[in-house]
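Hey,

The postdoc asked me to send both predictions to you directly instead of through the lab channel. I've kept everything plain text so nothing gets mangled by the mail client. Protein one:
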Amino acid sequence: MPESLFVVTNRHFKRDRKRDSYVLEDGLNRNGAKELRLFEARPASDALEDWHLDLIPDKPGAQDFQNADVEPIGTRKKRRGSDLVAARVVRRLRESRQNLLLFIHGYNNTAVDAFRRAWRIAGHYALEVVVFTWPANGGGERLLEDLHGKASYKSDKSDARASTEALDRALFRMQALLKELSEGVKPQALEEAREAHPGDPDQQRETLVRLLRERACPFNVSLLAHSMGNYLYKKTLMTSSERLSVDTAFDNVILKAADANHEGHKEWVRRIRARRRVYITVNQNDAALQLSTMKVGEDQKPRLGNTLAEQNAANARYIDFTPYVDDRHSYFDETDLGREEGGAQPLTDFFKAALNGEIAEWELPYHAGTNTYRIE
């Protein structure tokens, strides 16, 4: 199981002095929707219902970087909280040989809901997971059929729109830190590549790429957006002035059960830069996405996560889970399907590869008529 979860959030928070911990609330940070704070979260109960949160200091000191990978991140005179998180995460990744996943949760999730899901993903697929949690009313799918569901849904959609600047800041900072890791070791790696292959620029380039990979980022980095988290990601991409499309931070991007309009999706999906794959998962029988359309009415168009028609984003691979997951909206592992461990191997094999930044569709049957690969 993971050691802890690092958390990026624009939620309001308060101090729990009795427990020497913090609590993330359902509203936006009172200093503004784009205000970000960082926390380290650890479960305080076996059922994952209670969590202990430590606030990452905005201006960490040198002592905070003890037992962390400080080169080159921690060597600046002025350090940020994000530098400290990056240094600690990189240390873990280099020791564990695991990969990194950024998880953006969906509609009606409390912070605890998001932590619980991220913890399960981290344990099941052997990942280091960083959570981006944005304000939602809380309650998960169990509230989808409540009478107040429509108002709750619209409220969360409004919070998602308000959170775009916060997510943009988080993604841009993540890009900058990953780039800094490479830049910090590049001069020495370039010198070694030239010495190894004098007069051969092609071999020098290949050697440089290999050395940068081994020394700076010997791990894959992927992004997983679930449900309305895709709406937030979409709005961020469409309002970021293309700055998130300049550098490639992620090996894979997985748009899972996307609660975003299917119509016109290729226009924002094309802005996603991934080294390997952009995956869009589809379940035509997804009860939550069907219900989200019913709640909001005529202004809500068919959802990307349950529509097979016109799969036309040139940079995406569409994965059809319909034959395998019944009417599920959350289908991350066999537990979500009510099956025993190992009882959903086609599904878990796909997510194991995709979430770890690998190519995941090679062994899946392809259906040209719908431009989808199928889990069956």
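Protein two:
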Amino acid sequence: MAVSELCKGKQLEEEGKLEEAIAFYRQELVLNSNNSWAYHRMGEVLTKLGHFHEAVTAYRHAIELKPDFSWSYHHLGDALAQQQQWEESATAFSEAIELNPEHYGSYVGLGKSLAKMGQLDEAIATYLSAKALNPDADWINFSLAEVVEQKKQSDLVLAIANRQREIELDPDNLQVYYNLLEIQPNNCHVWLQLADILANQCRLEEAIVVYRQVLQLLDPGNQTNSNLNIKGGQKSGIAHLT
């Protein structure tokens, strides 16, 4: 594509005549089907119009013709991400990074795709690479913070599930309840389970303390529970407190 023709296409884009720009690039490709730049520019315009599937096709043609142009891979990754094709998007961004390891935007795109696939450790590492290249970009710091928080929540959910499984496997082991309460200190159900087991083991003073903890969690403003007693070591539950 001659410079004058390229300028004409870009001028149409700048004027907001996106459909005309696409028609122009299509006509150029009829004249020269090996024009990688026309495919690339058409992909960008199609993306602006929200035609992501067509944009992906255009970028793939551009890459076939010019496989060393990092921006085609980068924009391909963006278009694939818009279609929630996270694995393919991650592959495209990885290719862009291999060709242009200094472009922090490709790291951000890769990080987002990895996070969407649940690969949070890898996503965090990728965002850190982007941050190293552009440490003053608040939007990168924000994206990194979001994934770090997502990782914390994911780890917490996994830890809770593991502790609950320990209780299922060894329900008479007091320590497994304490282990879960370390990460869920306001879980009334677990506190009540612990109190019941203590009562059943005739460890009544300890059980009373735990039952009081349950009542305090259920009704933080209630100050009338300071003289509670347990009737019957084998009974369980708050209903048996007086």
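Summary for protein two, as requested: The mean pLDDT is 88.

Thanks,
C.
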